[in-house]
C-alpha cells in the first residue's frame, strides 16, 4: 500500500512532466516564431529552456532514478579495463581480415551461382 506522501508525489510528478512538455513545446514554437531572429539568440533560448526542462524533469521520481542510473553507470565505466593500443590494433586487424575473407567467399559464391544460373537459362 502506498503512503499519502508517495501518492502526492506521484500526482505532482504528472504536473512536473506536463511542465516539461510545455517547456519543450514552447521551445519548438518559439524557435519557429522567432525564425527571423539571430540563430545565436534562438540557440541560447533553446538551451535555457532545455536546462529548465531538465531541472524540472530531474525533480520527478523517474528523473531521480535516471540521475542515479547515470551516476551508477559512471562508477561502472571506471571499473572497465580498456585495451592497450597494441591489443586494439591487433583486434582491429583480425576483424578487417575476417571481413575481407567473408566478402571474398560471398563474392565467389555469388559468381558461381550467377555462372550456374546463366548456364541453365542460356
From TrEMBL:
GO terms for cellular component: plasma membrane. Keywords: Cell membrane, Membrane, Protein transport, Translocation, Transmembrane, Transmembrane helix, Transport. Gene3D superfamilies: Preprotein translocase secy subunit. This is Protein translocase subunit SecE. The gene is secE. The chain crosses the membrane at residues 12-33, 39-58, 88-109. It comes from Marinobacter nanhaiticus D15-8W. The keyword Aminoacyl-tRNA synthetase does not apply. GO terms for biological process: intracellular protein transmembrane transport; protein secretion; protein targeting; protein transport by the Sec complex.
